[in-house]
Design brief:
- The protein is of the alpha/beta class.
- It has two domains: 2-234, P-loop containing nucleotide triphosphate hydrolases (Rossmann fold, 3-Layer(aba) Sandwich); 248-278, no CATH class.
- The protein has helices at 50-57, 81-87, 104-114, 119-132, 148-160, 178-195, 229-233, 237-242, 249-256, 266-277; strands spanning 2-14, 20-34, 39-43, 65-70, 73-74, 88-91, 166-170, 198-202, 214-219, 222-227.
- The strands form two sheets. It has a six-stranded mixed β-sheet with strand order 6-7-8-3-9-10, sandwiched between helices.
- Helix 6 links the parallel strand 7 (166-170) and strand 8.
- Helix 3 packs across helix 4 and helix 5 (148-160) packs parallel to helix 6 (178-195).
- The N and C termini lie far apart (46 Å).
- Adenosine-5'-diphosphate (ADP) binds at residues 11, 13, 24, 26, 44, 46-52.
Length: 278
């Protein structure tokens, strides 16, 4: 679905005369393959290159060196951009910046409208997408009146209406309350399981990564650590700390009371606890 081949990206700052002022290497020979249907969580401290990575997937940025291929389309070819943007949608951190229309349904229709989808087909897609994110009843309301979490779900519906293969979430929960967060992560998992949509979820919240197929930890524009949640969270406190990570709360609690293995979910906790009692 997504392939990065030796991708380097440099942000070049220039002074008023246009001379190069500074160069930041945000991606450093990054190579990576994400399979169709995978659920990937991306972690890493601030400035490690996560957003730069995300923006390469839907061709908002293009590699300085190397190559990014999305659903078979090379992002450096301008002729591919519409196709890529339709297949790989992106949800950003700030829900307020993503609203473009007066009503929820118009907002969701914005993307497909620009793709030239016929009106009746579009209405069908908009309704379907709103039902998927649980906001069908709000379709005639103003998006400005919704909660942050609901706005994020409107943004997701706007992407769904374009029938994407892949959705990239760049810290979508950072500005939400716990309830809103949970909803967004649950929606992402549901879209992954039921519709086979490839998910790339960038987050700072360890709890949000435990259900992923694979965790990628970035540092200085490279992959520092990679594996299943269990593999990654078994690395030990020191290693995790180095990359600005900690184990999820439930894992820490299990360790504290001496339960065996690397426990990541409530179910695992209960099972291990019952076993320990026996
Ligand atoms: N628009 C920009 N201009 C210059 N440097 C940038 C820009 N955006 C990000 N950077 C730099 O690129 C590096 C990676 O940033 P970013 O991809 O935003 O990391 P993250 O999302 O992990 O916090 C950082 O050193 C950051 O300061
Ligand atoms: Mg970022």
């Amino acid at each position: 679905m997504v392939r990065f081949e030796n991708v380097t990206f440099e942000y070049i700052r220039r002074d008023e005369e246009g001379n190069v002022d500074s160069i930041t290497t945000a991606l450093d020979e990054l190579s990576l393959h994400i399979k169709k249907g995978e659920f990937i969580a991306v972690l890493g401290s601030n400035g490690s290159g996560k957003s730069t990575f995300a923006r390469h997937i839907n061709a908002l940025l293009k590699p300085t060196e190397g190559k990014v291929v999305v659903a078979g389309y090379d992002t450096t070819d301008d002729d591919n951009i519409l196709e890529i943007r339709q297949r790989a949608g992106m949800v950003f951190q700030n829900p307020d910046n993503q609203i473009v229309a007066e009503t929820v349904e118009e907002d969701v229709a914005f993307g497909p409208e620009n793709m030239g989808i016929p009106t009746d087909e579009m209405q069908k897609r908009v309704d379907e997408a709103l039902k998927k994110v649980g906001l069908y009843k709000k379709k005639l309301e103003s998006p400005n009146r919704l909660s942050g979490g609901q706005k994020q779900r409107v943004a997701i519906a706007g992407i769904l209406a374009m029938k994407p293969d892949c959705i990239i979430f760049d810290e979508p929960t950072a500005m939400l309350d716990p309830g809103g967060r949970r909803m967004i992560v649950e929606t992402a998992h549901e879209l992954n399981k039921k519709d086979g949509i490839t998910i790339i979820l960038i987050t700072h919240n360890m709890e949000e990564t435990v259900g992923a197929d694979r965790i990628i930890v970035m540092e200085k524009g490279r992959i520092a650590l990679e594996g299943t949640p269990r593999q990654v969270f078994s690395k030990g406190e020191e290693t995790l700390k180095k990359y600005g990570m900690e184990v999820p709360v439930i894992t820490a609690l299990a360790q504290k009371i001496g339960l065996d293995g690397c426990i990541l979910t409530r179910e695992e906790f209960v099972d291990a606890y019952v076993k320990a009692l026996e």
